């Protein structure tokens, strides 16, 4: 499992882009994790799945609600990573009103999640390989803080708990 002080693994995450702009077409676009975090302070939180109860009722809404406080504390971006495809993550982002606050990053094949060592097998529940619930602070591609939930818990990866650990850069 990734640890504090480790560099993020090389991987591509996908984001559904709503508005065509320079370098991005409408629809799913791939982004290299290492390039996207270079020179930035990023909060990345992972969760088991889009539209699931705790993820939709508590995890994402907390980061949306506290986004401005994260930005004021020196965070450049907030990413939600889930083992779902970019279309699902885009729809979930619209449903959760994440625009301008949280980037909804798809890890459809779980490549990034596996490289982090944060996968879990939820096949018995019909969900296949998914992400554990976690939150991390990354500075220039290096993990500076990491909080991984115990199975079935939601106590350390929520927005308020992570925000309490931050100091301005």
UniProtKB/TrEMBL annotation:
Pfam families: Redoxin. PANTHER family: PEROXIREDOXIN (PTHR10430), PEROXIREDOXIN-5, MITOCHONDRIAL (PTHR10430:SF16). InterPro entries: PRX5-like (IPR037944), Redoxin (IPR013740), Thioredoxin-like_sf (IPR036249), Thioredoxin_domain (IPR013766). It is an enzyme of class 1 (oxidoreductase). Residues 2-168 form the Thioredoxin domain. It comes from Trinickia violacea. CDD domains: PRX5_like (cd03013). Keywords: Antioxidant, Oxidoreductase, Peroxidase, Redox-active center. This is Glutathione-dependent peroxiredoxin. GO terms for biological process: cell redox homeostasis; cellular response to oxidative stress; hydrogen peroxide catabolic process. The keyword Cell cycle does not apply. It comes from the Bacteria. Its EC number is 1.11.1.27. GO terms for molecular function: thioredoxin peroxidase activity. Belongs to the peroxiredoxin family. Prx5 subfamily.
């Amino acid at each position: 499992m990734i640890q504090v002080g480790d560099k993020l693994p090389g991987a591509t995450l996908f984001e559904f882009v709503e508005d065509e702009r320079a370098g991005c077409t409408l629809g799913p676009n791939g982004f290299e994790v290492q390039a996207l975090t270079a020179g930035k302070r990023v909060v990345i939180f992972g969760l088991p799945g889009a539209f699931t109860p705790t993820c939709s009722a508590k995890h994402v809404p907390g980061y949306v609600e506290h986004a401005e406080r994260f930005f004021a504390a020196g965070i450049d971006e907030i990413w939600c990573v889930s083992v779902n495809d970019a279309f699902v993550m885009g729809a979930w982002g619209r449903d959760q009103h994440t625009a301008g606050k949280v980037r909804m990053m798809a890890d459809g094949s779980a490549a990034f999640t596996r490289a982090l060592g944060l996968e879990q097998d939820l096949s018995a529940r019909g969900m296949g390989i998914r992400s554990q619930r976690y939150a991390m602070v990354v500075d220039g591609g290096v993990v500076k803080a990491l909080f991984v939930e115990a199975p079935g818990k939601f106590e350390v990866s929520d927005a308020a708990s992570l925000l309490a650990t931050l100091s301005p850069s």
